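Input sequence (525 aa), recorded before submission:
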Amino acid sequence: MRAFASVLLLAATQALASGLADHGDDLFQREKIEVELHGFLRVRGDLLNNLDLDRGTTPSGLALFPVPLGNPTGQSLFVADMRLRTDLAIYAPFAAAAVKVRADLIDDLVFGSTPVLSPGAGNAPTPAASPGQFPATLLRIKRAYGEVLTPFGYLAAGRMGNMWGLGMMSNGGDCLDCNLGDQADRVAFVTSLVGHLWAVAYDFSAVGPTQFRKDGQRQLILDPSTDVQSFSFAFMNIKDDHTRKRRRLAGRVTLEYGLLGSYRWQDNDVPAAYLPVSGDTTLTPASVMRRGYKAAVVDGWLRFQTEGFKLEAEAAMLYADVEQASLLPGVLLRDRVQSLQLGGSIETTIGAPGSVFIGGLNAGAASGDPAPGFGAFPPAGSTPNAGELDGPQLDIPRDTRIDNLRFHPDYRVDRILFAEIIGTVTDAWYVRPWAKARLLEFRSYQLTLAADATFSRAFYASSTPGNDAALGMEFHGALTWASKDGFDVLAEYAVLFPFAGFDNPAQSLKAQPAQLGRIRLAWRF
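Predicted structure, token format:
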């Protein structure tokens, strides 16, 4: 059984793994209960300068990025936050089984955001005003699931991480600078057959309105037909870190790959249960309306590695169909809403791990939609309007398609344009050469310098505020002082030179450069 576990899935560096391809390698029979704790404390500060690009406001009267409230012509904003992440694994005795929990005890808490001020006393940070308030919370349980290695394969159930491939679409948010991360309420089974791993998973993606039972603790789902459900299937050929290193040192080529297919559906819906309404709303049978939502995704992943070269790529295609897009019971729309989204990314590394100097070329693309705005995070209730940074890609009955693919925000390709101003990669393609050099190595410490440049362009000029497909060129550099014992300091700087896609023709203003500086302290355990 232990030999099967070693083959089962990718070796995890933390107590909790994130995807179908990351579980089971630490499961084997133990003589007593064992507990492992991993995690990190992250403290960071950001200085943001001119991220509104000094190009005036959009037609809605808003800047591209928040500006100082007391001085709308001001340039700089500063914020500091912290996260204390704990990954706890409890291994059962005499069985290949474990229970794992991820708890972010402090989750992106902004310094000074929850003070208590009394006469003669200073600010004393206290918990946020309400449990679950985002982003300033002092406790958020993000994962809790059980897993067991059976003679037939690996079985897990609970709320677990959801990661696939490069993290372009599904991202567990495990990296030190990640902010979000996907979790799934899932039952999953993985087994090994004919040299591949085969996985199936059923997700309780969302449920309809609920009601408490008599005990006031447990709940009932009032209409199962309103549940959003997902079923996924994947097969993978994956090596663990030890095997990969051994093959690389032997000069052998390592090829890994995987294919994921997922189908999601929802028959009916109760919009009154989640839409903002004035006053209390009593749910009745008339509140239930037809939705007829169906969506499917196919996502392929590939990793090719030799002694001095690595290529990793991911490509995805998504299709969705909504039979009834109305949110008002009794008010039905004639036209269906459909979507076809395509995207991919590639990452290359030239140079062997541990080399003094390595580099590569990354690139990616996410399909677009000709509707105004990027459609990354459109404000609720907004309408398509030329010149806006963001906006809905849907305008029934004139436009019944949503074709812009959105990368996961934790899959970061830059520091300013996609990461801060737009919010993610969508309706655009980019090319990013990069390089990293080890400047100094002293005992258990290393000093490294990294630099990259990102050129980006939109697929549709109509999606940009300036009605031009040229987006910008961003340069980024980072200096890292890292200890093998788990402490590191990162200092980075980025500057964005925006192109005509962010100009303001209506006000005859050209977009000006934006800058970002960041300091990060991290303690890993």
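Checked by second reader. The helical segments are 2-8, 241-249, 417-422.
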